[in-house]
Amino acid sequence: MNIALIAHDEKKSELISFAEEHKEAFAKHTLFATGTTGKRVHEQTGLPIHCFKSGPLGGDQEIGAGIARKEIDLVFFFRDPLTVQPHEPDVSALVRLCDVYTVPLATNIGTARILVDSLNEEEIGEKAGEA
């Protein structure tokens, strides 16, 4: 599965901690991220990540294009709802594309935990089918 990781500045530490906590689950998938987020997650976890540009410099749009091409299957986008983002139109477009292409999107830690649990359950189901 191709998974995108994105976080606004005030949420980067939370996403990094989340990725570290679920490193084993993420290691089984192909990861993509906006520039700074991807670099920081990689430095902290060692997970291989394809980094696009920083969000404000087009990274959100690059991930959005991947969604439109059906190359991204799941998005973890830890948004900061209390800070106005200079690239808010790009953020809104990315969220809209997730809705258009029915790509699961976690914008907060609660939803992210449910989605990562789903990834782990999917793996358990695959192993049971092999037995």
Describe this structure in words.
The protein has one domain (2-130): Methylglyoxal synthase-like domain (Rossmann fold). The protein starts with a strand and ends with a helix. α1 packs parallel to α3 (35-45) and α4 runs parallel beside α5 (88-100). The chain has 6 helices and 5 strands. By secondary structure, it is α/β, with parallel strands linked by helices. Strands 3-2-1-4-5 form a 5-stranded parallel beta sheet, sandwiched between helices.
What layout of secondary structure does this protein have?
Blueprint: E1 2-7, H1 12-21, H2 23-26, E2 30-33, H3 35-45, E3 49-51, H4 59-68, E4 74-78, H5 88-100, E5 105-106, H6 109-130
Parallel strand pairs: 1-2, 1-4, 2-3, 4-5
Helix pairs in contact: 1-3, 4-5
CATH topology term: Rossmann fold
Largest sheet: 5 strands, parallel
Kindly state the number of beta strands: 5
List low-pLDDT spans: none
Q: What is the end-to-end distance?
A: 22 Å
Rg from alpha-carbon coordinates: 14 Å
Give the overall form.
Answer: globular
CATH superfamily: Methylglyoxal synthase-like domain
> Total number of helical segments?
6
CATH architecture: 3-Layer(aba) Sandwich
The CATH class, by name, is Alpha Beta
List keywords for this structure.
about 130 residues; alpha/beta; Rossmann fold; five-stranded parallel sheet; 6 helices
Short structural summary:
By secondary structure, this protein is α/β, with parallel strands linked by helices.
